[in-house]
Amino acid sequence: MQIYGVVVFLILFLVIAPDTYLFLRFMRNRVSRSICTLHWAICAFFAFYTTFILMNVNNIHSPETTCQLMTFVATLGAIYFPKLFFCNFDVFYRLTKRRSRKFHYFGYLLGGISFVMILYAIHFGKFNFGKEEYTVNIANLPDAFDGYKIVQVSDFHLGSFSNARIRTQPLFEMLRQEDADLVVFTGDMVNTFAEETIGWDSLFQTIPSKDTKLGIMGNHDYTPYFKWKTTEEKEQNIQKIRNSIERLGFQILSNETHIIKRGCDSIAISGIEYSNGRSNYIIPPLSNLNKCDENISDSTVRILLMHDPSIFDDSIAGKRNYALTLSGHTHSAQIGFIIGSFKWSPAHIKFKYCDGQYYIGNQCIITSRGLGCVGIPARLGMNPVYEVITLKKGEYEDKRDCKRD
Questions:
Q1: Exposed/middle/buried for 398, CB within 10 Å: 0-12, 13-18, 19+?
Q2: pLDDT tens digits, residue range 88-97?
Q3: What gap in Å lies between CA 217 and CA 240, rounded to an integer?
Q4: How would DSSP label each residue in 254-274?
């Protein structure tokens, strides 16, 4: 895990630099020696402890410990980002020879707001569960599936809730009330370890689904971001994760198709293993759409579960007859803003299909921003959601081609 550059940035620019500037600007020759000593003692604690955490990430196997330490790092950001903001405004204030006093006050305001927002994102934002509802019109949808209700859950990253599992109970109560025809999971049940799934059985088993719950593996479920001692140890963990997802109630589709029948009518749900279209990525391309196509009629209405939406244009749109593709992975960067129907986050820079419903011709892709957190256990603006998708028999109105819903 390439963590050293991150350590240097956090320590030099986030901790040491602001505290050094504040000392030279406001404390030196102005406060008692004991206050100065306390100031540097706190700075040293955060600097050395953060370095210790980040340098030893690969030695931490406990999901609870990992979550607690990442929460500490996020809280560190809540303390030091406001300091950094204030220092930048104060430097500008001094460079303008103190003529921009209102700008100086704005530094105080922005520092205070950022402190509150980061703490909110850590301790409340990631638990602000909601849902998005979509209707997908399919011209040749069998009559028996008109009004068929699919609930999509994605990117649980259960390790991010290890120390606060009780606060996820409202989510599962919401899922119980949906009474879905089909529940699908589109990848990333864990951050790294199969042990993250321990203790979740009673909650997952309460999610109702009239048809067999289906799921796929996400990139984190293949555990590529941890420095394993041996390949065998890594493969054993992957198999444990696969078994754990099935234990939680989802039948995993590994480049295969599951047929759902209603009388004489049927639809096909295909699921592919992970790929982002890059042959030199840390995870080799594992998807095989040709295997999903085996023994499936071209006239069958087909839905695809695909974790990463990056390969939709190259492999799906206009090339294979999937009426609907469901994906996750992006998290919408866990930070952003929503104004009416407009959504934006830094993830929109990278992902064409980042968050929501998109139409390409007569095909639809819905990307979930997911329910959990990866990296920093926090969400700001981009609250965790699941999707409720209703299938309707009818023609597409192709007015939203390539646009967010």
A1: exposed
A2: 888 877 777 6
A3: 12
A4: SSEEEEEEETTEEEEEEE---
Q: Which helix (H) or strand (E) holds 57?
A: none
pLDDT value of residue 280: 76
Number of other residues whose CB lies within 10 A of the CB of residue 33: 7
17 token code pair: 């630099």
Residues 6+ positions from 60 with CB-CB distance below 8 Å: 66, 69
Concatenating the DSSP letter of every residue in 314-370 gives: IIITTTS-EEEEEE---GGGGB-EEETTEEE-THHHH-SS-SEEEEETTEEEEE---
C-beta of residue 276 within 8 angstroms of C-beta of residue 310: yes
Which helix (H) or strand (E) segment holds residue 201: the answer is: helix 201-204
Q: Give the contacts of 167 (CB within 8 A, at least 6 positions apart).
A: 127, 161
Q: Are 9 and 47 in contact (CB under 8 A)?
A: no
pLDDT of residue 401: 44
User: Which two tokens mark 4?
Assistant: 């050293």
Alpha carbons 326 and 139: distance in angstroms, whole number: 18
The H or E element that residue 147 is part of is none
In angstroms and rounded to an integer, the radius of gyration of the C-alpha atoms of the chain is 24
Residue numbers of the chain with a pLDDT score lower than 70: 1-8, 10, 56-62, 64, 97-104, 396-405
